[in-house]
Specification:
SAM-dependent_MTases_sf; six-stranded antiparallel beta sheet; 26% helix; 24% strand; 405 residues; globular; single chain; alpha/beta; 14 strands
Length: 405
Amino acid sequence: MGHSQLLFSSPGISRLILIGNQIKEGVFSPKVYHRPLECSLHHQGFQVWSKPLLLALSPRCLFKSGIPKIPILSYEDNLVSSVVLHECIGFHVGEMLVEDVELENEGDIGHHRREFRRRLRFKRMPNLIQTEIRIVPETDGDNLNGVCIGGDVGFVPDLKVLVHPYLAPMVAGLALISEHVEGRIQNGFRPKGLCLGVGGGALLTFLTTQLHFEVLGVECDREVLRVARNHFGLEDSEFIHVVVGDAFEFMKLFACHEKLPGLSSFADCKVNDFCGHLGENGVNDKFDVVMVDLDSSDVRNGTSSPPLEFVRKHVLLAAKFVLSEFGILVINVIPPTKSFYDNLLSHFHDVFHELYKIDVGNGENFVLVATVSPLVFSIGDSGNSFLMLLKSVIPEAYINSIMKV
């Protein structure tokens, strides 16, 4: 899995040779993985004993100037064990799987801390984790003795914290409009968010339960929503609404106040009903934030976000139109090239008033925040209960790192 993604993201590769541990038959199901105590692939002698094999498998053209030097990439992570919980096929996203994993994290004093997660991955981009949430064992107390992935103890979602690397930075963007959100709350209104791309629903659930938003999510694949509901804790709620459809078309049609055909949600609500329940006038009908978490569906583009279809002026104008006067557009960005990044910034500057950037800190993602109106932003939370709440549920470092582009 992931071979095509790796090749397309590295066009200079002429031949890819994969070396890994053979899955052992026996006690555990083939869908359960446990990291071996010792791995010969990580020994210092690996490059020595593997060299004859790699040379034998190399293209003949590499030997024109003598014996070539074969570059070796070693993939290591903190995965301790994993088990596949569910596999299915979506109409739009294709094959997908849900897995529980145990990760090895460094504790405060150098000790390893056990961490359990649930992940959603698509086969078309298997190296990209679509959704990741924390899970906790169904046991009494904090004793983890006897708890293991694939064992007899079950796990349940813990949705009070965001563990997917870029979701907390996306939520941090709300600090820019904290005074506006605080004003809506003081006037008795719930702030409103539109999430383009639902996945496992971690962002929707967090915005609703931790920050008291009312959220509309748009997801193209009904099977993904079924998985989110069955495995990731996305529940029916008075304040969570889900529409099945194309995110871009929905946003454009929503902006034009047109009726959408073929809508579905957990509550079977129609967009007209939802619009009426958002507010009684045109201003209140709009969203305080639009959050975009969409990646390219074309494996030839490698891992990139947002899709090229989003970086169009008419799409950005539609996003701006559905936002309130002090609304913001928050988007997860993985630029495949510098030209993609420059083009993205240019389009955003053409449509929106101000542009801010939040570094995720993983060397891959960053978050862009575009504003409809000029903002006066202060990280001080004196008298702002929403900003105080925001700082209590996400790392404050992300808020402090917000910088204007």
